[in-house]
């Protein structure tokens, strides 16, 4: 694990670097002892996972807002150097005494807190000798009120640290901020402090201020200047804006298939049931939907818990095929021995807290002490990892979502006409879920639609479950009125998940029927469960589809599964990911599938906007060339062979360099009809670029439109172009040369080849550098010349 015992980090310290008061040494020792204490049971399992370097980018739909960029699979760079790489991510910063801010993002349950815990554990084991103190602070423990918040209150929050702290410790911290690692875990909990980046941060470190002021001070690098500030947070929501100020951003990748398997094995080792290890793995593998979800450690753990319970009872058991089924299975036994109304009471609490963006509960919030004791005993709520002992949290965010949905499914307080809004499928000004309770829609549909006896009835009894009948009617009416083809693609995916959870043939068919034949997911992240439901839907729809899977971050297995479906007749995907897929199919000897996938792949029209695009295109052509030079003459790639339109829009900084790469592969595109080298930001390929391009004309036999406007071309380039143009005489219909630096000599040389250009209809050549007299002359010479 990146955060695991970071053996690769630095040599273990021989001597503790503190050479100060005994009280400081003692505090350090007790802090280490606290972090070293490993939790018992599954919480103590640590599977090493990757952190991936990511970036935030401006949201395409929400103007200035920033969101996590969706990286292509090949673009993802795991921090293989482990924790050392993450913590030193910004060591190349220009001012070494500056605070460095590192953000670690991930969806709920992806393992951020576990990772943060492992960082403190690694420190406690002497593996981060560059820090004298690590403070790992769960943000939900922070006191949010008042203007009397001091740095000491943040570092030494009551209940968080081992013992009362003396002034000496604090003054040591102030003297050596560079040796402090401050971890703010679950930073999204502080979203009410939104806007702190621009807040005034007030006087020195020890002075009281508001929490917002203190955060401002830390982020503006005025308080504890020189420390390392590590944040973990869910990626969506308002706070993501402040994270754009981080020096480095990583994402917790979650479990790979192999890591999920390791987790299952360790889970059964820890629980002392090693005899069930293999059987549990087989159960998971038999349920591909849950398997696709097992990249989330939270789901993986829930699956293990249910498998353990099932295998105790019955060796022939099977796991359910939905997430709703998983949580009904887990909660069913707890519901049976609950005090009256306990489950519904807890569900209401989950909903109320979630709506207010909270996950922690105080003792006095439970309906009764009995309910609290039951919920703790059943592991539904648990003490916070490092918070005050009196504070509890739901044992997972997904469980909180499930309970919230249970409340919606049963409550008579939710009006019928309000219910559909909780599915969040129709556009609204404000999204009802943003980081919080986002799992609710699927669970709500699952609970309301799945057959009562094995679902809602199993939790609250059949009599109480009948209250969901009306809700089912309301939701059926709403869902059947939805037209899947008109939904924004993120909502379409959510609808597919809801329909999957419903286990209702009518609803499923309705959704399948409305799926458009061309589905573009461009820019929308596709997780393994998304790929799974999408694949099931396409297969069941009994029609053909074409898919655009570019910029979805789809994993190689998911890509292979979707594009391998016989009903997917065409697809677009990121070039590098597609080439990766071909290579793996080739290695696995799946020649037939490889051929099929190559046939379906299209890049039409192709727009190169980055150097990577050009390089990826180059790789594709290289594959084509290698194939055609080998025995395999049928190895032509239709994507290359059939490409008709190619746009190049790299801009002036990278344009010339990238174009010289592009021009080397141009002749491979034998069907190219439209080559557009004009981008709004100007490519500036210049005379040299034009000369290189002209040399490829004899091979571009199908070229009809050539746009060379805004490319810094002078008479030199124009004359070269004119000389080469006759090779395109039979095909070229339109040539654009607007806004270059062509003068009379260049213009006239172009005009003089026009009699040979029999297909040409238009030569657009307006540019202020051509003298007026020459312009008039040219227009009289050939009416195809446009000089306006
Ligand atoms: N690397 C790991 N190895 C073993 N178990 C893990 C790992 N990561 C997470 N888990 C398990 O998954 C559960 C959820 O992880 P964690 O609480 O760290 O997620 P999170 O991303 O912080 O979620 P949230 O945003 O809801 O706070 C943990 O309680 C733990 O049981």
From TrEMBL:
Keywords: ATP-binding, Leucine-rich repeat, Nucleotide-binding, Repeat. The keyword Repeat applies. GO terms for molecular function: ATP binding. The keyword Nucleotide-binding applies. InterPro entries: Leu-rich_rpt (IPR001611), LRR_dom_sf (IPR032675), MHC_II_transact (IPR008095), NACHT_NTPase (IPR007111), P-loop_NTPase (IPR027417). It comes from the Eukaryota. One of its GO terms (biological process) is positive regulation of MHC class I biosynthetic process. Residues 100-410 form the NACHT domain. PROSITE patterns: LRR, NACHT. Pfam families: LRR_6, NACHT. This is MHC class II transactivator. It comes from Camelus dromedarius (Dromedary).
């Amino acid at each position: 694990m990146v955060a695991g015992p970071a053996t690769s980090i630095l040599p273990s310290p021989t001597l503790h670097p503190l050479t100060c008061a005994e009280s400081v040494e003692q505090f350090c020792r007790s802090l280490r002892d606290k972090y070293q204490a490993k939790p018992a049971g599954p919480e103590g399992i640590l599977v090493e996972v990757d952190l991936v370097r990511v970036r935030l980018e401006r949201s395409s739909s929400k103007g200035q807002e920033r969101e996590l960029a969706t990286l292509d699979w090949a673009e993802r760079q795991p921090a293989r150097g482990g924790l050392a790489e993450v913590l030193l991510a910004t060591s190349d910063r220009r001012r070494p005494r500056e605070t460095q801010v590192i953000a670690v993002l991930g969806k709920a349950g992806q393992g951020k807190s576990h990772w943060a815990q492992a960082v403190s554990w690694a420190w406690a084991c002497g593996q981060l000798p560059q820090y004298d103190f690590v403070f790992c602070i769960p943000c939900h423990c922070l006191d949010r009120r008042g203007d009397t918040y001091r740095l000491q209150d943040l570092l030494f929050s009551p209940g968080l640290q081992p013992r009362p702290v003396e002034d000496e410790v604090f003054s040591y911290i102030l003297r050596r901020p560079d040796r402090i690692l401050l971890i703010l875990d679950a930073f999204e909990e502080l979203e009410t402090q939104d806007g702190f980046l621009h807040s005034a941060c007030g006087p020195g470190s020890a002075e009281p201020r508001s929490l917002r002021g203190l955060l401002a001070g830390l982020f503006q690098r005025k308080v504890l200047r020189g420390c390392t500030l590590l944040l973990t947070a869910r990626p969506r929501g308002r706070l993501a804006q402040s994270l754009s100020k981080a020096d480095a951003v990583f994402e917790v990748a979650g479990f790979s298939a192999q890591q999920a398997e390791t987790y299952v094995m360790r889970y059964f080792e820890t629980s002392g049931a090693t005899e069930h290890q293999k059987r549990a793995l087989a159960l998971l593998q038999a349920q591909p939907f849950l398997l696709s979800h097992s990249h989330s450690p939270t789901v993986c753990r829930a699956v293990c818990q249910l498998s353990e319970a099932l295998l105790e009872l019955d060796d022939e058991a099977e796991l359910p095929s939905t997430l709703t089924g998983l949580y009904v299975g887990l909660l069913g036994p707890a519901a049976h021995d609950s005090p009256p109304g306990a489950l519904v009471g807890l569900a209401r609490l989950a909903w109320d807290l979630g709506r207010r963006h909270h996950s922690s509960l105080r003792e006095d919030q439970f309906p009764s002490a009995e309910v609290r004791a039951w919920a703790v005993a059943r592991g539904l709520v648990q003490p916070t990892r490092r918070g005050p002992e009196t504070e509890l949290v739901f044992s997972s965010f997904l469980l909180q979502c499930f309970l919230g949905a249970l409340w919606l499914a049963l409550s008579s307080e939710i009006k019928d006409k309000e219910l559909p809004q909780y599915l969040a499928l129709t556009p609204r000004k404000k999204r009802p879920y943003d980081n919080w309770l986002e799992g609710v829609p699927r669970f709500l549909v699952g609970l309301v639609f799945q057959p009562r006896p094995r679902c809602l009835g199993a939790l609250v009894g059949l009599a109480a479950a009948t209250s969901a009948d009306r809700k089912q009617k309301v939701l059926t009416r709403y869902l059947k009125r939805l037209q899947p083809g008109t939904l924004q693609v993120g909502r379409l995916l959510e609808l597919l998940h809801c329909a999957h959870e419903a286990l209702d043939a009518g609803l499923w068919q309705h959704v399948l029927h409305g799926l458009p034949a061309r589905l573009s997911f461009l820019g929308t992240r596709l997780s393994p469960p998304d790929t799974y439901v999408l694949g099931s839907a396409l297969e069941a729809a009994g029609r053909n589809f074409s898919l655009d899977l570019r910029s979805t971050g789809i994993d190689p297995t998911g890509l292979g599964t979707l594009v391998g479906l016989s009903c997917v007749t065409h697809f677009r995907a990121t070039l590098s990911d597609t080439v990766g897929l071909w290579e793996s199919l080739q290695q696995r000897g799946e020649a037939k599938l490889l051929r099929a996938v190559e046939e379906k792949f299209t890049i039409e029209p192709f727009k190169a906007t980055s150097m990577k695009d050009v390089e990826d295109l180059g790789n594709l052509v290289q594959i084509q060339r290698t194939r055609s030079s080998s025995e395999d003459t049928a190895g032509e790639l239709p994507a290359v062979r059939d490409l008709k339109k190619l746009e190049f829009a790299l801009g002036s900084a990278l344009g010339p360099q990238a174009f010289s790469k592009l021009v080397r592969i141009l002749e491979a595109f034998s069907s190219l009809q439209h080559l557009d080298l004009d981008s709004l930001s100007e490519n500036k390929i210049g005379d040299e670029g034009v000369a290189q391009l002209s040399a490829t004309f004899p091979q571009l036999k199908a070229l009809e439109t050539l746009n060379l406007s805004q490319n810094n071309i002078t008479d030199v380039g124009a004359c070269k172009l004119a000389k080469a143009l006759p090779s395109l005489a039979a095909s070229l219909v339109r040539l654009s040369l607007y806004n270059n630096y062509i003068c009379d000599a260049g213009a006239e040389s172009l005009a003089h080849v026009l009699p040979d250009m029999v297909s040409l209809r238009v030569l657009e050549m307006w540019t202020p550098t051509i003298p007026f007299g020459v312009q008039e002359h040219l227009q009289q010479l050939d009416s195809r010349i446009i000089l306006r």
